[in-house]
Amino acid sequence: MERILVTGGAGFIGSNFIAMALTENPECRIINLDKLTYAGNLENLTEYAENPNYTFIKGDICDGPFVEKIIEEYGIEAIINFAAESHVDRSITGPKIFIETNVTGTLTLLQAARDKKIKRFIQVSTDEVYGSLGATGKFTENTSLSPNSPYSASKAAADHLVHAFAHTWNLPANITRCSNNYGRYQFPEKMIPLMINNALNNKDLPVYGDGQQVRDWLYVYDHCTAIWAVLTKAKPGDTYNIGGCNEKSNMEVVRLILEKLDKPESLIKHVTDRPGHDRRYAIDASKIITELGWEPSVTFEQGMEKTIQWYLNNRRWLENVVSGDYQKYYDQMYANR
Fold first, then answer.
1. Are 23 and 51 in contact (CB under 8 A)?
2. Pairing verdict, β 214-219 and 247-249
3. For the chain, how far is it from start to end, CA to CA, in angstroms?
4. Residue 325 — pLDDT band, cuts 50, 70, 90?
5. What burial letters (b/e) apply to 240-249, b meaning 16+ CB within 10 Å?
6. Which percentage of the chain shows pLDDT scores above 90?
7. What pLDDT, in 10s, does the model give residues 58-116?
8. Residues assigned a catalytic role
9. What whole-number distance in Å separates Cα of residue 19 and Cα of residue 36?
10. Nearest to 54 by CA among 62, 63, 64, 44
11. Quick one: what percent of the chain has pLDDT higher than 70?
12. 53 neighbors 26 (Cβ within 8 angstroms)
């Protein structure tokens, strides 16, 4: 696939994917469609702004005629849909925008892909659509969907739409479901950059409940190479789980960050748990490893070392981001806890 429409490409995962694709696959042409909401940041892609194989277009994936015009004008062959509202806390306080972007937006893209005969549609989803696990077991591609938050419900609905378009109109589509990502350019409402930023500024590190919630952590670069493998190697219709094979409790992650930054554990502040907080996620990534030959390139410890160092080296980026919407949002969220 040489001409790819990447939606949400100014966000965390999307911008990392574009950087990886343009660097490692110079024959591809990337069209980045992003609405530039609070988590979209073109600074993430400054070094590619003059690349002749990269084009940024500001726009809304819910605008069907506009999406179709882009597909026609640039001869788009594949669509990779990263565009999403993705923060669980925000979905609890305001779920409507999650339905508009994650469900209606995906539907609009699917209709355009069907009508313009796109060769491949990749829906970037999440392991949260599976719900919560007990102390043992892992999510496989055959695990039933059981979302527990407005965010995960909206992503599950989008996944069902992708499956429906593939079944009803033979749209050549794939769904990827990843575990928790971390790495450079992550908006600091998510746990790892939030904790790094607070620790650097000697502020409380808010930990939900007892902090023993378990997640599988995936370095964002590895997620990007997995999506590329699905785009170029997978047969249409298949779903792939993408995991880093790194199960860690939230407390383990927080303590590691404090240790790396030489900050005291007294900064940890346990706050009231999130409503309906899923206890454990764990991904079985054996299908993509076996069928497509993908595997993670770094351990969790190596990935965290790279991530923390990046935030230390890019304090200006972090300060620019936290100076606006994020800071107001989190100050309000934790004020009375």
1. no
2. antiparallel
3. 49
4. low
5. bbbbbbbbbe
6. 88
7. 999 999 999 999 999 999 999 999 999 988 989 999 999 999 999 999 999 999 999 99
8. 127-128, 151
9. 18
10. 44
11. 96
12. yes
Q: What one-character DSSP code corresponds to residue 322?
A: I
Which three-class secondary structure state does DSSP give residue 12?
Answer: helix
Show the tokens assigned to 11: 């966000």
pTM of the model: 0.93
pLDDT digits (tens, 9 = 90+) for 266-321: 999 999 988 889 999 999 999 999 999 999 999 999 999 999 999 999 999 998 88
Secondary structure class of 217 (helix, strand, coil): strand
Query: What are the structural domain ranges in the chain?
Result: 3-182+218-242
232: three-class secondary structure by DSSP: helix
- 141 three-class SS: coil
Q: Which of 192, 248, 197 is nearest to 220 (CA)?
A: 192
For residue 33, what are its two tokens?
């469609």
Token reading at 244: 């880093």
Place of tokens 């739409």: 161
- Read off the tokens for 300: 């969790």
Instruction: Quote the CA–CA distance of 203 and 144 in Å, as a whole number.
Output: 40
Q: For strand 78-81 and strand 120-126, is the pairing parallel, antiparallel, or unpaired?
A: parallel
Please state the φ and ψ torsions of residue 49, each to the nearest 5 degrees.
-60, -35
| Fold adopted by 3-182+218-242 | Rossmann fold (3.40.50)
Contact residues for 331 (Cβ-Cβ < 8 A; gap 6+)? none
Tokens linked to 113: 């892909």
Residue partners of 160: CB distance under 8 A and separation at least 6? 145
DSSP 165-183: HHHHH---EEEEEE-EEES
Q: Measure the CA–CA gap between 206 and 204, rounded to whole angstroms.
A: 6
Q: Cα separation of 277 and 75, whole Å?
A: 43
